[in-house]
Amino acid sequence: MSAPPRRVENLHTDKGKVPVYATGIVEQPWDDYSAEDHATWATLFARQREVLVGRASAQFLQAQDAMGMSPHAIPKYAELNAVLGEATGWQLIGVEGLLPELDFFDHLANRRFPVTWWIRTPEQIDYIEEPDLFHDLFGHVPLLMNPVFADYMQAYGQGGVKAHGIGPDALQALTRLYWYTVEFGLIREDGGLRIYGSGIVSSKGESLHALESAAPNRIGFDLERIMRTRYRIDSYQKTYFVIDSFQQLIDATAPDFTPIYARVAGQPSVAAGDVLDTDTVFQRGTGEGWANDGDV
Ligand code: PHE
Ligand code: CO
């Protein structure tokens, strides 16, 4: 890392205390990446691609290839933007790290995706608490090449601006939707389950866990059920939700959420590992290794 990111404040959220960085857009300081930074990218890229063949959605892998991402060097945002702009009109902007919610939603609503400019240190190869360049670029950016997913992300940003005006319960429900789709979603493809969530594709351990472990539940996508479901921030997820297609995601989230938020706010939340009678269960987890507390 060439310079430490600039932490400006800590924000208390339902994810605990998270650092919130300067909100300004920064130019990617590409010339300042060290040989070690490029080597970290190369190591993570090669390792994840090996894990993800046959595990990640083919749409994700194809999009990553189409963008020209390779282990050779940390990609230049400007070069990715030329391809991405042509494909779906999305643009990457460099940021210091996590943004305040409203700024983040506003960027998405305008088809701008904030990408953290700095990459983790070699000591953080297997686990890092906050999103870095590898998580954002390798994990989130490829599916912005997909026209349907690209529209979903913009709609999410617009919905976020709206939820922000409605209040904390609405924001919590929307955050859970993001968590269980964009970050930790699974999709049915070629007769099996595949990964598309960025939090999974950017983690070797969670890629194997999400698909192959007997511990977690794998349950069919259900909007209101997801909006009620708490999640894990310090361990692998106890439950993954499965979509049939990105079209299902955009169709299911098209209705006005205002009455849905009100209904969800009146119902009890669901623990991260619970299975309900109304669930479409692909796999009921054994729960092996689960901590009893710590859902957020
Ligand atoms: N339809 C949602 C609303 O009215 C907006 C949204 C779309 C939210 C897609 C998330 C994902 O608030
Ligand atoms: Co993320």
Automatic annotation (TrEMBL):
Catalysed reactions, semicolon-separated: (6R)-L-erythro-5,6,7,8-tetrahydrobiopterin + L-phenylalanine + O2 = (4aS,6R)-4a-hydroxy-L-erythro-5,6,7,8-tetrahydrobiopterin + L-tyrosine
Pathway assignment: Amino-acid degradation; L-phenylalanine degradation; acetoacetate and fumarate from L-phenylalanine: step 1/6
Gene3D superfamilies reported for this sequence: Aromatic amino acid hydroxylase
InterPro entries documented for this protein: ArAA_hydroxylase, ArAA_hydroxylase_Fe/CU_BS, ArAA_hydroxylase_sf, Aro-AA_hydroxylase_C_sf, Aromatic-AA_hydroxylase_C, Phe-4-hydroxylase_mono
Keyword set, alphabetical order: Iron, Metal-binding, Monooxygenase, Oxidoreductase, Phenylalanine catabolism
Family: Belongs to the biopterin-dependent aromatic amino acid hydroxylase family.
Protein's recorded name: Phenylalanine-4-hydroxylase
Gene behind this protein: phhA
